[in-house]
């Protein structure tokens, strides 16, 4: 079993178990927040947490939502190789439809096309798709033309999820 330590001043340890792993997602959330402050990648908390994510990224089964978070965390940390590897894996799981791209939870029932009804995805799917978009746009030194074109397809889907007031299904 692998161990992951995260914290701001106090470290706590949790086991990484693969699959849908809240500990890995929490680690990614914390790294994202710290790097957006911006705390340097050389800070011990960030460095240790990134090591945990790198270890988790080498695992066999990672939930699509966790991959999206990790890809953005690695983008912020300027770890291009890890970012690209996760984005490549995510692209294989993408739902490409009507000239747009998005991600959905595994095992979810396909959306039904009904007349006069516009399907809007659950907030978690909008959120994970937005993290993938951020990971594409946070490439260092800058996103390639290919990444920008793919990002435009993602942005198209996200904008299609807006309600008539311009918001989304939740405030998340």
UniProtKB/TrEMBL annotation:
GO terms for cellular component: extracellular space. SUPFAM superfamilies: Terpenoid cyclases/Protein prenyltransferases. Residues 15-172 form the Alpha-macroglobulin-like TED domain. This is PZP protein. The gene is Pzp_1.
């Amino acid at each position: 079993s692998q161990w992951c330590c995260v914290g701001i001043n106090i470290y706590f340890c949790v086991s990484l178990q693969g699959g849908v792993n809240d500990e890995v997602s929490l680690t990614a959330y914390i790294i994202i927040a710290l790097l957006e402050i911006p705390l340097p990648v050389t800070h011990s908390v960030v460095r240790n947490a990134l090591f945990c994510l790198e270890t988790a990224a080498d695992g066999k089964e990672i939930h699509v939502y966790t991959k999206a978070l990790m890809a953005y965390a690695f983008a912020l940390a300027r770890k291009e190789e890890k970012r690209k590897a996760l984005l490549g894996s995510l692209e294989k799981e993408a739902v490409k439809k009507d000239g747009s791209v998005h991600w959905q939870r595994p095992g979810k029932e396909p959306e039904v096309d009904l007349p006069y009804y516009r399907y809007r995805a659950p907030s978690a799917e909008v959120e994970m798709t937005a993290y993938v978009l951020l990971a594409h746009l946070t490439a260092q030194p800058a996103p390639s033309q290919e990444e920008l074109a793919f990002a435009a397809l993602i942005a198209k889907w996200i904008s299609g999820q807006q309600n008539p007031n311009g918001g989304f299904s939740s405030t998340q």
